Batch of 2 targets.
Target 1
Amino acid sequence: MTAVHFIERLQALSSAEEAEKILRYFKSGDGQYGAGDKFIGVRMGQVFELAKEFIEMTPDEIERLLESDIHEARAGAMSIMDKQGRHKKTPDSRRKELFDLYMRRSDRINNWDLVDLAAQYVVGRYLFDKQRDIIYKLAVSDSMWERRTAIVSTSYFLKMGETKDTFKIAEILVHDDQDLIHKAAGGWIRQAGKTNKSRLLGFLDHYAAVMPRVMLRYAIEHLNEAERAHYLGLKNR
């Protein structure tokens, strides 16, 4: 199960027409967040199905996939990492290898879909019973993808009923200058609010007037009409 073989299989699935669609979807034009990314035109569903066949791939081969300039190859690498991270029988030693690989090669995890594929189970699950200082360092990184990793990784904590880190990371990101970070932070505190609504309302009481509008709208999506109007009103003052 090698990176070379995986890429050969990917190329057999590629479509120039699909590549054009994907390029627009991932905003790869000049000046956009995905500028310069190379797509060969494989649907993500196909990438994920292929990743299932390569679930036993070693971390060394996964790293070779991450080194590819083909976006779908890197998505495949992240999908394989995610599948290994999710598997109950994955040993702790492999979980550490996957976490270390994610941290070491975060330069290759350079789009929102790549972050979202693996941050929960590769980063969050690994850190669940450990010190979590690293995600606070990621939250203030110059890399928007590392900042996104910080908030998305807390998905696993939310799954386990813990909301503290999600709100604390969102507090760090409340003045971020990137739309993709606003959406992630707002969406994740919305999810945290399902477990701890009072904490969400407290966060909004403090930050609704100053947080980016898109972050606020994502955060209040599941509140009732009166609550949404109240917090939007704070923003409009």
Target 2
Amino acid sequence: ALIICPHAWTPWYGIYGANSGYDSLEEAFGNLAKYILAVETGLSSSPAMNWRISDLDRRAIVSFSDAHSPKKLGREATVFSGNFKDEVTFNDIAGAISERFLGKNSGRLKISYTIEFHPEEGKYHYTGHRSCKVVQSPEETRTKGIICHVCGKSLTVGVEHRVDELAHGREPLKAVKKISEHGVVGYYHPTDPTRPPYIMTVPLHEILAEALSTGVASKKVDALYESLITEFGTEFNVLLKTDLEAVAKTAGERVVEGLKKVRSGEIVVNPGYDGVFGVVKIWPSPDEKKDATVRSNQPSLF
């Protein structure tokens, strides 16, 4: 068996969530915590945020995807690598995930990297109350508290604030950026080379929708999405690997510009809160750029 705590930071049900009642795996599971070898980040946290938590120093940090609907499958993923000719087994996957905790790998795979949402796009990244449209950064929450100033009810404590609480004074880490041959930024632990790196991307439907100035669920977006997948095989191929000149022949220069921005991380994300997804802006307005600059001048993860 392999036990992993999924969407670890979700306020309501995640093991580290603000409303879970627990601050550590040992507190939750007692002497059974030694059997939990990894946690899954969820959409609202990144590996760099999890690197701050001492409880996870010896545990793997992985990313997977909820199976809520076909279009949302594979929004996040863990990529394994290894040398083998026959089929991969459960033991190979379990060996790779448990390697950090056990100090050995009984399989033929290793965790190569993880594919992540921008954590700000997750629907619990910031603290807030959607009914009153109240949104607070961790800095604002430390000043204003967790009571809604509009209605007096409790705010839903965001993941970034909760990470700050459980980091117990560990400062945010400045991940080292490395750019792949395809222009994709990888984020690496600054001092621990045994930690797998990660990359961040945006779902292809969202990129196409903004490029075409239409809705994510529009027929126009669906048609172009299907054309790209038919031509290049998978969504991750288009997002991360395909030559952009080839993409331009199918999708046009505007889509290629969007893919370049997403690969390099040159986008703005208005953080999600209290069940409201964050909003990605690949082509932000001047005001949105200004707001993002203000946020980037606050203590940052990257």
